Amino acid sequence: MTTERGQRRWTARWRASAGWETCAVGPTLEVEASPLSHYKWRRLHLSTLEDRRTQLAAERPRRADAQRNRDKILNAAVRIFGEDGLDAHLERIAKEAGVGSGTLYRNFPTRESLIEAAYRNELAKLCDAAPALLATMPPREALRAWMGRFIDYATAKLGMADALRALVESGVNPYAQSHEMMLAALESLLDAGTTAGTIRSDITAADMFAALTGIALASGKPEQRSQAERLLDLTLDGLRVGD
């Protein structure tokens, strides 16, 4: 006796009949097709997949080249805006980056968009460095390396001060969430050091941010870098766990 469950069981089968194939799916639905239709569909499907793989393979180098060009433009922009201020010529930035003016304008249609992207790129490099450093060195050493990168970031920001000020006056806020992002990076470094027993547990990310900001303000110019490094070492010594 056939049970209700058996009656409702779905099946799928191909059967040949008078030069046609019938695909029976379930108890009520049957679809008839030419004997070659399934074969042709498979060929078309595989051909489409192969074409897509070829297209993606061709696009990867272009995307990689485009990203490299974008990175070179942003790095050049930080240097040139730092040297020439707001009046820096975009053509000089393109030349410094080794790209054509058209490439620069395709990526950054306006001066304002370039200034904002250059600053945000420096911020991203700083914050992304925290997990990368922790993955390759002990927490205390990772924190010290990150502190040096903070001074690099602050120096770049100082050099772009006029350009960033003009950007803010135009109604754009390039600093959105920057404070929170840096605090999160510092928090991860301090937590790792506390867990390892090499950094005091009573120091907060806000404490460290205030200390680093003070060092950057006092010794953030390129010619003051040796003093900044000494101050960073003193700050790190203050984080040592007491004997």
Task: Summarize the structure in words.
This protein is mainly alpha-helical and 243 residues long. It has helices at 4-7, 37-84, 90-97, 101-107, 111-134, 139-159, 161-169, 178-196, 205-219, 225-237, and strands spanning 12-17, 20-25, 29-33. A hairpin with a 2-residue loop joins strand 1 and strand 2. The longest helix has 48 residues, at 37-84.
CATH-defined superfamily of the largest domain: Tetracycline Repressor, domain 2
CATH level-two architecture of the largest domain: Orthogonal Bundle
The count of strands amounts to 3
Order of helices and strands: HEEEHHHHHHHHH
Q: What form results from the Cα inertia axes?
A: elongated
Main beta-sheet strand count, sense and barrel state = 3 strands, antiparallel
Please give the CATH class of the largest domain.
Answer: Mainly Alpha
Query: Which strand order do you get reading across the main beta sheet?
Result: 1-2-3
Mean pLDDT: 80
Beta-sheet strand percentage?
Answer: 5-15%
Number of domains: 2
The total count of helices amounts to: 10
Gyration radius (Cα, Å) is 30 Å
Low-confidence stretches: 1-49
